[in-house]
Every structure is written in structure tokens, then in C-alpha cells.
UniProtKB/TrEMBL annotation:
InterPro entries in the record: TonB-dependent_transducer (IPR051045), TonB/TolA_C (IPR006260), TonB_C (IPR037682)
Residues spanning the membrane: 16-36
Stated name of the protein: TonB C-terminal domain-containing protein
Predominant location category: membrane
Keywords tagged on the record: Cell inner membrane, Cell membrane, Membrane, Protein transport, Transmembrane, Transmembrane helix, Transport
Protein species of origin: Sunxiuqinia dokdonensis
GO CC, any one term: plasma membrane protein complex
Membrane topology: Single-pass membrane protein
Keyword Transmembrane (UniProt): yes
SUPFAM superfamilies found in the cross-reference section: TolA/TonB C-terminal domain (SSF74653)
Lineage: Bacteria, Pseudomonadati, Bacteroidota, Bacteroidia, Marinilabiliales
């Protein structure tokens, strides 16, 4: 009986030969690649290239981020007007003869009890707990001004009219003092307005924390020709 060989068995027998042939071909291509020389082409002359280089190179600076600081706490100070024209008595320092004892200095001997004086608050306030009040209130003040004003003849003859603004101080005893013209119209009208303010009766004084204090007051006086 004759043994038949299949195609698959025939390929298995020829496999070592085929591997050897493939290896030889691969080595040949590798040697050919290393021996191959690429011709170097000369660079074409593209002409002279000019580069525009700026004289000054400005480098942008990045500003550091500013940290937002918390706003400072604002302290509101009450503004008070102090009368600088207040006369201050020069007080001399009295030295009393004292005897030194073993126990020290007798402090009571250094105090002159007969010369103790109550300190008076001369500060002028703009706002207090209880503002000064004209006797009878604001309506009574307006009636008083209208009745007390004597229109100057010079102003009448020249047709001068307008509003005079005045400031004054109501003292702790209710008396009006330190009247001044803040904005005037004419010397004759300003003088008459000052006369009316200075002739006012005693006011009810203003109080701060239950104590009478000096308070600044503002009042306008209108002069109108009819």
C-alpha cells in the first residue's frame, strides 16, 4: 500500500529551508540599506534674508495683584466750638509753710479750701440732648423778630432788601451772646439784625446729660420792602 503525503505535511518538511532563505534575504536588504548613499543636493540660493530686529525690546511687566485691604474704621469725632476769647485768670501757685513730721507731709495743709472754685464748662455745642428754646417757642421768636426789627431808612431809600443769616450762643443762664453775621446783605441791614438778636430776652438754656451748657444757634432775618 502506497503512503500519500498531504500538502500540509510537505510544507512542514520544507519549513527549515524556507526560514533560511527568508533570513538571507532580510540580511541582504539590511546591508544594502547601510551601503546606500543619498546624494547631497546643494542648497538653492534663496537670496539674502533680512530680519527686522527692533532697537528696543519692550518686555511687558505684569503688575502684582493688589490685595484688597479692609477699609479703615472711621471714627467720628464730635466737633465743638471753643470760645477762644474767654479770659483766663492767671493763678499763682501758693506755697504754704508745713512742718515735716516723721509721718510725712500734712496734705491737708496744702489745700486752700477757701479758694475752691467750681469749674465752668465754656465749650460751645452744636447739638445737645435738649436744644435752647425761645420763650413761647419758634412762633413766638418769629413774632418777636418781626416786631422788633426797625427797617433802616438808608436801606429803604435805596431799595435794599434781603436775608441776613446770624449765629449766636445761648449761655447756660439763657442769655444770648457772641452774635455774628454769617452772611449779610448790606451794612445797615446787618447792623439792625445784630441789634435785634442781642436784645432778645432770656432763652431756656440747652442741656447735655441733664446739665445746662452753651449751645450755638442759627437764625435768618428777612428784610422785605412792601
Amino acid at each position: 500500500m502506497e503512503t500519500k503525503k498531504t500538502k500540509k505535511a510537505d510544507l512542514e518538511n520544507k519549513r527549515p529551508l524556507l526560514l533560511s532563505i527568508g533570513l538571507v534575504i532580510s540580511l541582504s536588504f539590511t546591508l544594502l540599506a547601510f551601503s546606500w548613499k543619498t546624494p547631497i543636493k546643494e542648497m538653492d540660493d534663496f537670496g539674502q534674508v533680512q530680519w527686522d530686529i527692533p532697537d528696543d525690546v519692550i518686555i511687558p511687566l505684569t503688575k502684582p495683584e493688589k490685595k484688597e485691604l479692609a477699609p479703615p474704621v472711621q471714627t467720628v469725632t464730635e466737633f465743638v466750638l471753643v470760645d477762644n476769647e474767654t479770659e483766663i485768670d492767671d493763678q499763682e501757685l501758693d506755697i504754704f509753710d508745713t512742718e515735716m513730721t516723721d509721718e510725712g507731709i500734712d496734705v491737708n495743709a496744702l489745700i486752700d479750701k477757701n479758694r475752691e472754685e467750681e469749674l465752668v464748662d465754656e465749650t460751645v455745642y452744636f447739638f445737645v440732648d435738649e436744644m435752647p428754646e425761645f420763650p413761647g417757642g419758634m412762633e413766638a421768636l418769629l413774632r418777636y423778630i418781626a416786631k422788633a426789627v426797625d427797617y433802616p431808612v438808608v436801606a429803604k431809600e435805596n431799595g435794599i432788601q434781603g436775608k441776613v443769616y446770624l449765629n449766636f450762643v445761648v449761655n447756660t443762664n439763657g442769655q444770648v451772646s457772641d452774635a455774628t453775621v454769617v452772611r449779610g446783605v448790606d451794612p445797615s441791614l446787618d447792623k439792625e439784625a445784630l441789634r435785634v438778636v442781642n436784645s432778645m430776652p432770656l432763652w431756656r438754656p440747652g442741656k447735655q446729660a441733664g446739665k445746662a451748657v452753651r449751645v450755638a444757634y442759627h437764625v435768618p432775618i428777612s428784610f422785605v420792602l412792601q
